[in-house]
Amino acid sequence: MLSLRLFTTATPAPRRPLRAAALAAAPLLLALAVAAPAGRAPAPQAAPFALGADISFLDAPTPRWPARTYRDGGTTGDELTILQRHGWNAFRLRVFVSPVRQAPDNSLERTIPLARRIKAAGATFLLDIHYSDTWADPQHQEIPVAWRGLSFDSLERQVETYSRDVIRALRDAGAMPDWVQVGNEITRGTLWPAAQVEEPGDTMYLPPQPYDSTLQWDHLTRVLKAGIRGVREGAGDTPPRIAIHIDRGGDWRKTKWFFDHLVAAHVDWDIIAQSFYPEWGHGTLEQLWQNMDSCAARYHKDFLVAETGYGHSHVAGNPDMVWPLTPQGRLQFMADLINTMQRAPRGIGAMYWAPEIEAWNDDGSPGPVVFVLDRLADLTARPASHAPEHP
């Protein structure tokens, strides 16, 4: 159980940031104390808050993360069923272009059976199209080997055709996604170098030099429009909501830079999806809340944390790692994140990435974070003056 210490602070006035000392010491306090500014009401929720997980490893195990037997209360089960039993109601699956290389076999063929299980279970299904035959993230956005050598116009058509065919195959299999990500963590663009963009102040992962901002952004937005067209063509009369996913959950300045370009190019999407990992220095809960608040005001879009988790830090001297790096610390982080998002404008859900890696005990029993919704009332019922002790 987390130890507690007394911490007293006043509730901030509307639109005034919390004191830095309070933020550094009290992620739970922030989640409880912060409220929407005067004159700004969160958009009505069309569906319950989505607590979800990316379970793409479940049917594509690897030597590093092999298949395992799951148990809950002494009874053998499967991860999807056990998570649902404890209130998790949304699941994400990634899909790589075939043939997949240097990555788990998350091909469309391998994805469809698990997608059907998600839909049969009545859960929300988020499909994450990578537009790559291997991992795609802010450090890697490789053109699939099968698509290399195409002109940009041909590549644009290929994105539309591929997106249409993926969605049509899922629809025909009875596994139509509810939400679709057109790209994965595309802060620096996708299909490098053709649709790669230069992030302000970045010195790594640079696009072709000398950099032509107009050309590269034109390429990126054309690719996104092609992917969105393809998704909607494949869906027919049941179009899913479109999510655009970057990795700047606590960074409003970079978020504004990215999505302003999409607005200027008339890209038509529905959900701002973000990664928010303390271990990668993605910011504080206050910064996440401020980003959500600013996005709601500027773009009038719903906000999804499409990837999150709490593991070992990848950043030296990381100030964002304010919860204990323990199973109980992971539980408290998720409780604080959920409460922050539910109190922010237009927060629709959070997805825990690969719970198979750290959310389960070695014997296959669920770790504390699996029970976050079961424990949420207990974890947030403390007086606002109490906060988790930090290491």
- Low-confidence spans: 1-42, 383-391
Order of strands, main sheet, comes to: 2-5-6-7-10-11-12-13
Name given to the CATH architecture: Alpha-Beta Barrel
Number of helices: 11
Quaternary organisation of the protein chains: single chain
Detailed description of the structure:
With 391 residues, the protein is an alpha/beta fold. It has a single domain (46-388), classed as Glycosidases (TIM Barrel, Alpha-Beta Barrel). The chain is 35% helix and 16% strand. The chain contains eleven helices and 14 strands. It has helices spanning 20-25, 27-33, 79-85, 108-120, 152-172, 213-235, 252-264, 285-299, 327-343, 355-358, 372-380; strands at 4-6, 50-54, 70-72, 75-77, 90-95, 124-129, 179-182, 189-190, 195-196, 241-246, 271-276, 302-308, 347-353, 386-388. The strands form four sheets. An eight-stranded parallel beta barrel has the order 2-5-6-7-10-11-12-13, surrounded by four helices. Strands 1-14 form a two-stranded antiparallel ribbon. Strands 3-4 form a two-stranded antiparallel sheet. α4 links the parallel β5 (90-95) and β6. α8 runs parallel beside α9 (327-343). The longest helix is centred in the middle third of the chain and has 23 residues, at 213-235. It is globular and about 55 Å long. Mean pLDDT is 88; it is low at 1-42 and 383-391.
